[in-house]
Amino acid sequence: MNSKYMFSLIAVVVLILLAYVGVEAAGLQVIFGxxxxxxxxxxxxxxxxxxxxxxxxxxxxxxxPTTCGQQKSLPxxxxxxxxxxxxxxxxxxxxxxxxLFFRSLFxxxxxxxxxxxxxxxxxxxxxxxxxxxxxxxxxTVLIRHLRFFLEPVPVCLxxxxxxxxxxxxxxxxxxxxxxxxxxxxxxxxxxRIYIPQIxxxxxxxxxxxxxxxxxxxxxxxxxRYFTKVNIVGIKxxxxxxxxxxxxxxxxxxxxxxxxxxxxxxxxxxFPFSKLMHMGGIFLxxxxxxxxxxxxxxxxxxxxxxxxxxxxxxxxxxxxxKMIEAGLPVEKES
Amino acid sequence: xxxxxxxxxxxxxxxxxxxxxxxxxxxxAAPVPEPKLTEKAKLEKECIEPKExxxxxxxxxxxxxxxxxxxxxSRTYVSKTGKKFNMSLASGDDSCIGCHSSKADFCDKCHNxxxxxxxxxxxxxxxxxxxx
Lengths: 333, 132
Prior knowledge:
heterodimer, A: Fumarate Reductase Cytochrome B subunit, 2 strands, elongated, B: about 130 residues, two-stranded antiparallel ribbon
């Protein structure tokens, strides 16, 4: 038992019950279906922008890249162009691999002390693999959901669906991304529970998004494959939201409102949480700056203007006296 | 260092992406599709199960039927009310398309709206268009 994950678990269970009771007993479809989603999207957009603008206000006076390769140096020393970029182009390549393939996570190793006090570093790729699977399947699921918000559905979306349901398992066809999403997020959760060191550093704020996403994926999968919902009614509802003429059609089960409410909570929670790494990864100064401190001078923008008095000026002031006293001067007159 | 211009450009692109559904649908009131029933279907009043159940579960029923017919050669479906039906999607009057004879007016209406492309008609022969 750990108070941190219990706290998050209880929070998510309360949210689920809130939506379920709210719709089932109190009939608050308008609140949970229209008011809360709009507010959540608003909080998401405004919160995201203000959080990023807050970061943008912090000046970065000096290049502070973390380096994983040889810095550009003398011509006969081989320069590691991507891991220790010197130009904007190199930075773009490094950011590209970082954002799309989580390159720094790929370097993950696990340290262990063996018998005889020998240390070993183990190649540990499961975290990288699971997070890559998680992020890409979540992206696919998110994009797939646009079919409810767009009419007519664009061809590229239909293509994505065809690829996603490639194996044609059952009817309605199994979307691989949904299954991969649930599996990988479960792995990421179990990792925090089973590895003692990770459990020790995990906070309630780490477990809450995990429980939230697990619940969102589970309710989604339940609706699609098990309890079944009136899909045309849901599209009508989603189109109402997207065209700003919201309506609440009949015959939509409360499970849908639970799903929608959890998604709204995720959106509203996003700007205040660690999930902001979505925007933050673009702004990480240790990744997005070329390592050219030795070649270029970077002046701190908030340096105060200091009144300086150079040696030349000093000599101008006291030249006669210095010559009289027999002190050496640089200029004679 | 001042990267504010780049950051603001990035944020604008992000917001355009996020609000995509809002401006994609702007000024378009997409009507909710209403599948057309044929005279024969109207006379029957009810499909093999109640309408709401059929709306949500028809694909599951067809999937179970396929299994039952192809694997077990069993073609009798007993509905919840105890009525017996012939399990068939597209063969003759005693099948799904016996009543719902137009794919375009019935199946496709909702399938297109919800972006569903079932692969029924890659094996079965689509009902001819003129037949009413």
